[in-house]
Amino acid sequence: MSKEIWLDESPATSRRERRKQEFREKIIESAIMLFEKNGCDATTLEDICDIAEISRPTFYSYYASKQELIDALGQKLWLNVIKELTSESLAKHESTQQYIQSFLELTRREIVKYSRLEKELIRQIMSNDPGDSRTANILNGMTSMLMSIYSQGKKKGDIGNRYPVDFLAEMTMGSISSVMMNWALDPDFPIEKRLKQLADYIPSMLELNK
């Protein structure tokens, strides 16, 4: 995955904002280089500051800690992955069941291709306390996305009225979160197998709702 996804997408307008953006990008690029080479745990805050050629106080003006930087990168990666998978799945399939099945299958295929850094960042963000704001933002964002998809599915007749869309979205997100959490905590967890099973299970669950 291109390193450009880690950097700010909107251009800074003022000179002061451009300067701040340059420092933030130096921190991110230095951290990524070190995380890819040594891993997140083995990389120290001093290492990042040395490579970025900044002082610790300058680092702290952008991130409260190394862990906050790791979490921010993990969140950005995960949200970009979800955005890409959502666009690709919606473009290919008409029915809600086909969309969900495609989304989970694409997720499974993407995880296989992840670099060491991408795997570690996803594990970091998914192994956080569910009450952590960044983790909560990801889970809430995905649940809202699923509610929107399921609401459209109801209008098209793909999904019945046995259960409300918020319940279906929560159950779907709960299943996905459980699989991802287990993967985050257990390096031997069969993530590919579980996502493939989910790709069969969730569409069948939606069929039962008719």
What is the structure about, briefly put?
By secondary structure, the protein is an all-alpha fold. The protein has helices spanning 15-38, 45-52, 56-60, 66-92, 96-113, 116-126, 133-156, 165-185, 191-208.
Mean pLDDT: 80
Full CATH superfamily name of the largest domain: Tetracycline Repressor, domain 2
Quaternary class: single chain
Summing up helix and strand content along with how strands pair, one would put the structural category as mainly alpha
Number of separate helices: 9
Into which percentage range does the β-strand content fall?
under 5%
CATH class of the largest domain: Mainly Alpha
CATH topology of the largest domain: Tetracycline Repressor, domain 2
The biggest beta sheet is recorded as:
none
- Going by CATH, the architecture of the largest domain would be Orthogonal Bundle
Radius of gyration, rounded?
A: 19 Å
Q: How many runs of DSSP E, i.e. beta strands?
A: 0
**Portion in helices:** over 70%
List the uncertain runs. Answer: 1-6
Question: How widely separated are the two ends?
Answer: 39 Å
Task: Tag the structure with descriptive keywords.
74% helix; 210 residues; mainly alpha; 2 domains; disordered N terminus; Arc Repressor Mutant, subunit A; Tetracycline Repressor, domain 2
Structure notes:
The protein is an all-alpha fold and 210 residues long. It folds into two domains: 7-60, Orthogonal Bundle (Arc Repressor Mutant, subunit A); 68-208, Tetracycline Repressor, domain 2 (Orthogonal Bundle), CATH 1.10.357.10. It is 74% helix and 0% strand. The chain contains nine helices and no strands. It has helices spanning 15-38, 45-52, 56-60, 66-92, 96-113, 116-126, 133-156, 165-185, 191-208. Helix 7 (133-156) crosses helix 8 (165-185). The radius of gyration is 19 Å and the shape is elongated. The chain starts with 14 loop residues before the first helix and ends with a helix.
